[in-house]
Design goal:
The protein has a single domain, classed as Jelly Rolls, CATH 2.60.120.10. Helices cover 4% and strands 40% of the residues. By secondary structure, it is mostly beta strands. It is globular and about 45 Å long. The longest helix is centred in the first third of the chain and has 5 residues. A hairpin with a 4-residue loop joins strand 5 and strand 6. The relative contact order is 0.28. It has a 5-stranded antiparallel sheet. Strands 6-5-8 form a 3-stranded antiparallel sheet, with no helix packed on it.
Length: 123
Amino acid sequence: MGYHVIDPDDIDHSEGRPCEMHYISKAAGMEEMGLRLYRVAPGEEIPVSGLHYHDEQEEAFYVPSGELRVETPDEEFVVPENNFFVAEPGSVHRAFNPESNDATAVVVGMGAPPLSDGHAYEG
């Protein structure tokens, strides 16, 4: 058994990302689910590769603060504070905070299984 209390500010944010991202799952030694905290300023996005999809990974975003937008090939979703957005495997998406927003969006991202199976969408 193991228990962890983790302050995301105690974890260095990952370099090379379009927004601030903290790997909570890595700090806790989690192996079955990827768990991350994002702080997405206006004009920033979450994925490295823009529109993308996952082969096997189910992905969910919870927005405790601010507003997140998710672009798909067919429409753009608005994910308000205290709501979730869920993308099933094979579903093309790009999560972002538009430049027109005034506030940074705080987003908890969860993915399972914790694979790096994302592919850029060539539409």
